[in-house]
Amino acid sequence: MLIRTLYFEQASIIAAVACSLIVAGLLKGIIGVGMPVVALPLLLLFIDIKSAAMLLSMPLIFSNLPQALEGGKTGRCLMQLMPVILGMIPGLFLGVRILLALDANVAKIIAGLVVMGVGGVTLLAPKLQLQSRLVLPTGITFGFFGGNSGRHRSDAGTACFHISACKGPARKGVHKGSIAVLVVSAGLLAILLTASRQFSWLDVSVSTAAMLPIVLGMYVGQHMRDKIAPETFEKLVLIAVIAAGAELLRHGFFS
User: Fold this and answer.
1) 170 lies in which domain range?
2) In sequence order, which ranges of the chain are alpha helices (DSSP H)?
3) Spatial contact of 186 and 57, defined as CB atoms under 8 Å apart
4) pLDDT (tens digit, 9 = 90+) per residue, 30-84?
5) In angstroms, rounded to a whole number, what is the distance separating the alpha carbons of residues 151 and 36?
6) Hey, CA dihedral for 142, 144, 147, 148, is it positive or negative?
7) What's the domain count of the chain?
8) What is d(CA 228, CA 140) in angstroms, rounded to the nearest whole number?
């Protein structure tokens, strides 16, 4: 489905898809995270949500795997975030089924709402405090709805950041663990999508090739890192993400 979608699109749409991936890589190069948060709403302006999910699956794995394995003790970090994983697995299975069955406009409306929600929570997370007794149920809830959102991408990983941030001062290894959870969720997504009748291993190859514009963006972003305040850049990006979510809502309601 992915390779067919891109094959029949105009050259301008393919160029826009490539530029969206470069912009997403730029964000990851500057602040180290957030690539799918930007990539998904941008891609949905040009291609359908099913193709966008498949396109991002392999870049999510390859771009985050070095960070997930860096320094060892990845298993211990994952154990700290087990509530999110427990919720993510059934949520992801259900989310993929919903994703493959959804009408395109309905999918855009749902994606727009979740994109705006994730962007808003990410902006507010440092100001929120979560009591210890609420960590387990909140983690499971975040993980389930992250997998069930039909967008796959960063919700499980984003949930990890939110849970750790709301618990108070960040603990060593939480960032690493959240990246590892994102790699696991992206891997499961790629397997589930490829196992369906709508995608094939050729689509996996196209998704792997999508790493090229993302790597280009990351390379440029890493060289810009010292010239831009990461916190300011991240806030501007999140505002842009919320605006993109609103645009998806408009497309969903009025297309």
Assistant:
1) 2-254
2) 2-7, 11-31, 35-43, 49-69, 74-80, 82-101, 104-124, 135-148, 155-166, 174-195, 201-209, 211-224, 230-254
3) yes
4) 877 778 778 888 888 888 888 888 899 899 899 888 887 877 777 777 777 777 7
5) 10
6) negative
7) 1
8) 35
